[in-house]
Q: What sequence folds into this?
């Protein structure tokens, strides 16, 4: 009887052994991420311990900042990534230069490309795709349910508010490099979520901020990344931006600064970020 079923027993043993090997290999996988939102989702899915290096936009969770950095966008070189011998590289679409991607593929590096979300629906898509890739679809569903719960909390709060403040997002990288976010930017979407009226309209993407345009926009609130305020020397350094002292936002000290990845990343915390922004712009 045993002899009769021996082939089946051996097959089952082989399958179990292969599954155990595959699981062990996946747990020891060495991952490099390029894009803060991808990094955040990978962490939420439970795989951050496999990340051996990442880019400088990957600031959440905080433990990522202690890892080796591969740089930022067009500064990233294939040699720096290959030197770390990754098993897998996860990148945001168009984040790396095409020639860098080609070099990595030529070196037979496993590259997976995902689109960076700019809307909540895009966030859901990214979570679903990464959960499918890591073969943990149930965890993806759990994350999306958390996002939906945060959005419900946001909606509940906004229903108690009658005002719709005017706001402008300012991107500062020192007093000589200051831009304002127009249409088709993350600010457009996050302002909409927080029920804010963006007054920087009529142009797409980011444009240099001039004293005249800032006075003309005259928002109730000026929104910055925390790193942008720091680049100006702190809140006191905002006066270095010409024309800012003539805005209602500055006169009333209505300046909002939030973490860059938190505010613009559209990761799993997007609902919380929109709620924090909504509350920060309403006394």
A:
């Amino acid at each position: 009887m045993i002899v009769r079923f021996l082939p089946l027993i051996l097959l089952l043993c082989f399958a179990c052994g292969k599954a155990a090997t595959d699981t062990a290999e996946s747990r020891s996988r060495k991952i490099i991420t390029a894009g803060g939102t991808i990094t955040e989702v990978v962490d939420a899915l439970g795989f951050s311990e496999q990340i051996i290096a990442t880019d400088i936009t990957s600031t959440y969770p905080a433990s990522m900042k202690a890892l080796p950095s591969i740089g930022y966008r067009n500064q990233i070189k294939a040699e720096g990534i290959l030197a770390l011998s990754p098993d897998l590289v996860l990148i945001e679409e168009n984040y790396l230069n095409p020639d860098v991607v080609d070099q990595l593929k030529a070196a037979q590096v496993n590259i997976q490309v995902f689109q960076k979300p700019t809307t909540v629906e895009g966030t859901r898509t990214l979570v679903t795709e990464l959960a499918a890739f890591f073969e943990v679809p149930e965890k993806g569903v759990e994350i999306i349910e958390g996002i939906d719960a945060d959005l419900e909390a946001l909606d509940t709060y906004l229903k108690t508010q009658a005002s719709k403040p005017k706001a402008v997002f300012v991107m500062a990288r020192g007093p000589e490099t200051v831009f304002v976010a127009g249409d088709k930017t993350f600010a457009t979407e996050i302002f909409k979520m927080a029920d804010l009226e963006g007054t920087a309209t009529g142009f797409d993407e980011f444009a240099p901020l001039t004293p005249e345009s800032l006075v003309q926009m005259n928002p109730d609130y000026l929104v910055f990344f925390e790193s942008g305020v720091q680049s100006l020397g702190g809140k006191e350094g905002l006066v270095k931006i010409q024309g800012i002292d003539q805005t209602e936002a500055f006169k009333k000290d209505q300046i909002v600064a939030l973490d860059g990845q938190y505010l613009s990343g559209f990761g799993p915390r997007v609902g919380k970020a929109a709620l924090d922004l909504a509350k920060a712009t309403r006394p």
Notes: The two ends are 80 Å apart (CA to CA). The chain is about 45% helix and 15% strand. The beta strands are 31-34, 51-54, 88-92, 110-114, 166-172, 178-181, 197-198, 206-208, 221-225, 255-258.
